[in-house]
Amino acid sequence: MLEERIKEWQAEQRREGRQEGRQEGRQEGRQEGRQEGRQEGRQEGMQKVILDLLGLRFGPLPQTVRRRVKEISSETKLRQLSKRILMASSLDDLDLR
């Protein structure tokens, strides 16, 4: 009787442990997803601002320039490019062709 009760208690503890593990895994997954979504949103926003600045500064942009800007995924590189736009006299100065 006591042995059965111990086995039941152990089985219950394992079930609860698995359930807690699944809940923690789902929560971590949601947090990672939100973080990745925010990062992608910042990246897309920076790319759009850069394309807008380039268009205002140099007129209609060739498709190759648009594609190159959208290929940049590093926020650091996007920030650097946005600063270089201010000093560039042409698109060729930005190495985007």
Please tell me about this protein's structure:
With 97 residues, this protein is an all-alpha fold. The protein has one domain (2-94). 81% of the residues lie in helices and 0% in strands. The chain has helices spanning 2-58, 63-71, 75-87. Helix 1 (2-58) packs parallel to helix 3. The protein is rod-shaped and about 85 Å long. The N and C termini lie far apart (80 Å). The mean pLDDT is 88.
Describe the SSE topology:
Blueprint: H1 2-58, H2 63-71, H3 75-87
Structural class: mainly alpha
Straight-line N-to-C gap:
80 Å
Secondary-structure element order, as H and E?
HHH
- Which segments are poorly predicted (pLDDT under 50) over 5 or more consecutive residues? none
Helix amount, in percent? over 70%
Spatial extent as radius of gyration:
26 Å
Tally of distinct domains:
1
Largest sheet, if any?
Answer: none
* Percent range for β-strand residues: under 5%
Given the C-alpha coordinates, what overall shape results? rod-shaped
Per DSSP, the total helix count is: 3
Quaternary structure state of the chains depicted:
single chain
Let me know the average pLDDT: 88
Q: How many extended strands? A: 0
Summarize the structure.
The chain is an all-alpha fold.
Keywords:
single chain, 97 residues, mainly alpha, 3 helices, 0% strand
